[in-house]
Amino acid sequence: MATQQQQSAIKGAKVLMVGAGGIGCELLKTLALSGFEDIHIIDMDTIEVSNLNRQFLFRRSHVGQSKAKVARDAVLRFRPHINIRSYHANVKNPEFDVDFFKQFDVVLNGLDNLDARRHVNRLCLAADVPLVESGTTGFLGQVTVHIKGKTECYECQTKPAPKTYPVCTITSTPTKFVHCIVWAKDLLFAKLFGDKNQDNDLNVRSNNSASSSKESEDVFERSEDEDIEQYGRKIYDHVFGSNIEAALSNEETWKNRRRPRPIYSKDVLPESLTQQNGSTQNCSVTDGDSVVSVMPSLGLKNPQELWGLTQNSLVFIEALKLFFAKRKKEIGHLTFDKDDQLAVEFVTAAANIRAESFGIPLHSLFEAKGIAGNIVHAVATTNAIIAGLIVIEAIKVLKKDVDKFRMTYCLEHPSKKLLLMPIEPYEPNPACYVCSKTPLVLEINTRKSKLRDLVDRIVKAKLGMNLPLIMHGNSLLYEVGDDLDDIMVANYNANLEKYLSELPSPILNGSSLTVEDLQQELSCKINVKHREEFDEEKEPEGMVLSGWTQSPATNGESAATSNNENPVDVTDSSSGSETASKKRKLSETEPSNHNKETENVESEDDDIMEVENPMMVSKKKIRVE
Amino acid sequence: MDGEELTEQETALYDRQIRVWGANAQRRLTKAHILVSGIKGTVAEFCKNIVLAGVGSVTLMDDRLANMEALNANFLIPPDENVYSGKTVAEICSDSLKDFNPMVRVSVEKGDLSMLGTDFFEQFDVVVIGYGSRATKKYVNEKCRKLKKRVAFYTVDCRDSCGEIFVDLQDYKYTKKTLEEMVECELNFPSFQEAISVPWKPIPRRTAKLYFAMRVIEVFEESEGRKHGECSLLDLARVLEIKKQLCEANSVSESHIPDILLERLITGTTEFPPVCAIVGGILAQEVIKAVSGKGDPLKNFFYYDGEDGKGVMEDISDSFTS
């Protein structure tokens, strides 16, 4: 197999791997076995127990240590003479600038969050370094190749952004279990145990009267000597009882919807729990790691079991009690963490009680944890297959075998007999704002939207810029950087709070903005159109960005159900380049199950590197994070 | 079989994969006993995958003495003579595999597969023959089919940048998920002998050429008394001769099998690690599916070719003639 030319191309190559998790471990191993001798690897994550089912370079004793470093050490053990350089760092750090990327012959991504992928995509474009992208979820996976000017860049086809839900659905009219989870996690849990200074929509109601909302605020305050169980029941009755009753009083809301039923603790639970279950001192503390949990004391052993209303209610109250009894110091500073057993128990219970109230099917702790924690289901085999495919593409890139580049899809069920389906890469999308510099159009209410909204929702969230710079004509409206003096910073902060039409250089209908990220070397033009009204349900952000979704290839059809022509030319394997041209294939459907499956969820592994998400505390939108 | 619960430790460790295939499937996996022979790169990958998946036990067979050559494409063998000298490949791999998942029982069995009786194979739920000769594959497959208990049988072979997997699940009942519900299905697999004896003429034109090429190589190695991969370009003439004979016997033209493909298969004697990862991954997925009884199994051949990048399933049984 390995010709001389191939061997020397591999031996002399300098490769960058981004991500040392599921795909990363398999990839590093395969690269080393294939003869690669100079590999750099970046990962900011540390090892967790749940990684060990597939990230085979790690052992239990490594939990807590740097993934990049341990992966390096493990691989050196069977290939001691190669060079592996590990970075325990966030790939978005300024040290990984265009010059850093330029030193590599190819970049291989083993990430599973959209944000970092877009960032790396831009740096590879700026450095003109080939990028091999990949992703897996369960049994599905894909590998794609991106060469500046020759193929699509990673962003030529839009990837679905993480799901968001309108506020009213979460606060008042849930119809799915995930709505209840978001309510329990981002509203109730946050209100009870999180930062008190954060805005919280928990008590938002359609008929907001000043006095009733003040009462609601007081309910959540707990006085020093207030009995914890009484407090818990008070909260329970408030959120599941009186809040629901208040919501019911608004007839309009329920005209075409199923009415929720109020639930009060006295109807579900015995008068005093302490008599039933003993004091909270009986809670189980396991592992010496003091994993605080209520399930054992309630006799609930199986996380896959469905709890009834009573059991959920017990968990709710007991979990709340346990937070106050054992973790008092953390109250006021907690954020939901899927690895926090007690938090998961509480959120599961709360979501289930709410679901019961609204007639939505209940879920087990196992299921709830997956939803609340955005857990990506993952197995070793798919990662191994994808890693093999990545190396094969990487070698083609190094040999400059341009005609042989392929996007390869790993399917769960064969489509036209194919389990591994290669298709030719597409040409760059001329409408791609990242690699083809096409201007975007933003519809926004310039009188009611502030610059901050534009920066957070559009520039950072949608355009994926980290350190943006916003210019209107010659006027610099906003920028970030270490080298700014206090006056400038104050000036920019002031600008953030101004309505667009009231900025020193007013942004009005027809204005044209330039937004840039110097690190990513990305510059975009945005043409602004003023619009008065936005649909609260369909356009919850109050602004619409277009011009970044204009790719003609269809998305959203899975290969397994597709009846279209097999995009791959199924002739002899020995035939030459039948379609040497890489024209955009308009009539064919890409098996884009990868779009739905692998991109839609934030990772649990490389998740720590996620940019602080301003949407979490937005008044207008709640996102499942 | 699905009586006992998974332990807390198992649930925590296997959380991510339980979300893929469910707790029941995981329970079945922890009770499965796998026999693996012929541990080169692809099979090493396979073993790593099933050990991580948490099978009950893995029994390794490979009496070759570990040496520098065995290291190629096999990350289970540390490149330290002090460690591997004097040990068999199976022994070294066993030590490494135990490390990946202490909950899996990994052991070594010495001896020649083709000398073992039916009783031996009864202890297993799955048998995987790596890089076996045609005779060995036939022999073991027949033994497995003789047993009352259904033993899932697989062969795997990687040469150059190609790979072949063969699957025999005999009479296989399983469930699969459709959009609305769980459906019960049944498939009937031909034996290894039946699958390689299918007349070539009725087989559809678009069938992977590798199927035919591998049959030629099988005959070559058997008639010349060679072990797997014991061949070179010097053998091409003989191989092409055999191809001619087989094509004639099957009334198909010689263009049925590209010469260049045969040339690749006999010259590419060292394994290509990316292909090992790919084929080892597919094989492991199949074994996991068969043990859990969930999901459409591969029926009955799988081919991967690094040249065109396709991973294709071929259903080769004598139904073509009926």
From TrEMBL, chain A:
One GO CC term on file: cytoplasm
Which species is the source of this protein? Answer: Arabidopsis thaliana x Arabidopsis arenosa
Q: Where in the cell is it found?
A: Nucleus
* Domain called THIF-type NAD/FAD binding fold: residue spans: 4-405
Query: What taxonomic classification does the UniProt entry list for its organism?
Result: Eukaryota, Viridiplantae, Streptophyta, Embryophyta, Tracheophyta
Note the CDD domains from the entry: Uba2_SUMO
Q: Name one GO molecular function term.
A: metal ion binding
Point to the regions of Acidic residues compositional bias: 600-610
Specify the protein name.
Answer: SUMO-activating enzyme subunit
- Compositionally biased residues, Basic and acidic residues: 586-599
Q: Where is the composition biased (Polar residues)?
A: 547-579
The protein's annotated pathway: Protein modification; protein sumoylation
Q: Which UniProt keywords apply?
A: ATP-binding, Metal-binding, Nucleotide-binding, Nucleus, Transferase, Ubl conjugation pathway, Zinc
Q: What domain of life?
A: Eukaryota
The record, for InterPro entries, names: ThiF/MoeB/HesA, ThiF_NAD_FAD-bd, UAE_UbL_dom, Uba2, UBA_E1_SCCH
Record bears the keyword Cytoplasm: no
State how it assembles: Heterodimer.
Query: Where is this protein chiefly located?
Result: nucleus
Q: Which residues form the Ubiquitin-activating enzyme SCCH domain?
A: 327-369
User: In which family does this protein belong, per the annotation?
Assistant: Belongs to the ubiquitin-activating E1 family.
Please report the stretch or stretches of sequence annotated as the Ubiquitin/SUMO-activating enzyme ubiquitin-like domain.
442-534
Q: Name one GO biological process term.
A: protein sumoylation
Q: Does the keyword Cell membrane apply?
A: no
Q: Where is this region: Disordered?
A: 200-226, 532-625
From TrEMBL, chain B:
Q: Which GO terms describe its biological process?
A: protein sumoylation
Under Pfam families, the record lists: ThiF (PF00899)
Q: Name one GO cellular component term.
A: cytoplasm
- GO molecular-function annotation terms? SUMO activating enzyme activity
Q: Which family does it belong to?
A: Belongs to the ubiquitin-activating E1 family.
Quaternary state and interactors: Heterodimer of SAE1A or SAE1B and SAE2. The complex binds SUMO proteins via SAE2.
Q: What is this protein called?
A: Ubiquitin-like 1-activating enzyme E1A
Q: Which organism is it from?
A: Arabidopsis thaliana x Arabidopsis arenosa
